[in-house]
User: What shape does this take?
Amino acid sequence: NYPLADLIATKMAALSLSTSALGLAHGVAPPRGSPSISMMAKATGKDTLIALAEEQQIPMGFWDPLKLADKDFWSEGNDATVGWLRHAEIKHGRVAMAAFVGFCVQSNGIHFPWDIKGGILGDAATALSYGDLSAIPAPVDQWAAVPTAGKLQILGTIAVLEYVGETLEPHYMRGGKPGFYPSLKDAAGGGKGNIPHPVPLDLYDPFGFFEGDSEEKKARGRNVEINNGRAAMLGIFGLICASKGLIVPGLDSLGIAQATAEPMSYFGPNDAGLPFVENMLKFDIASFGQPQ
Assistant: This one.
């Protein structure tokens, strides 16, 4: 009765296998004073992942059932492939951590006190407040109710952040540090020119709390982040599955609000005025994109 939930469960299983290839952990922080920093500096390709598994105290050690660490994506070489895999995992982990916290916040009715649409200068008849969205029980349905203009603004912001990150030299597939994000202040205005106007704060450490950290502490922090990101990826998919009616052990007793919207679609029926969205909505996602 829940083909979509079944599909999400399949994707969740694939996700857990994929992250396992990079050393899936159970949220275990590596010990302080990890001696493998020098080893990581010398490791390349698959050896990097083996060293990471040891540094992050993975219970099962290095485990790569999909043999991703041996691949050569786009004929760029194994080192570039591993760099791409590591960067992708870190990025998805960060998004998942934000999503997990956001799901919990939205489920508990916590919201900003102002309008998302309209406001004091807008039309009161069409105004939409964050409180209005928060009144919708399920976070997935709350997202579906976000105005199209808001979704486009978010998409545009993501595009700018991606552009800045992908134009960093050296690139993470060319010897750069996976997961590193450049300073927005340096990229703005008179800096490297990737952003046309000044940006007062950086995306990472906007208030400079970690500027004086040692390299050893930073290395440990990166491993904690990776482990937490892996847990969050499984966690957010578990919450989504539970909100679509799938039985998820440990979440069934929490009374998670059931969602009616499509969680795997950025745009929905309310956005049908955008190009291609109407045609997209004609496809049955639960049938892997086959036309209805």
Remarks:
- Residues 1-43 have pLDDT under 50 and may be disordered.
- Residues 78-107 form the longest helix (30 residues).
- The chain is about 45% helix and 5% strand.
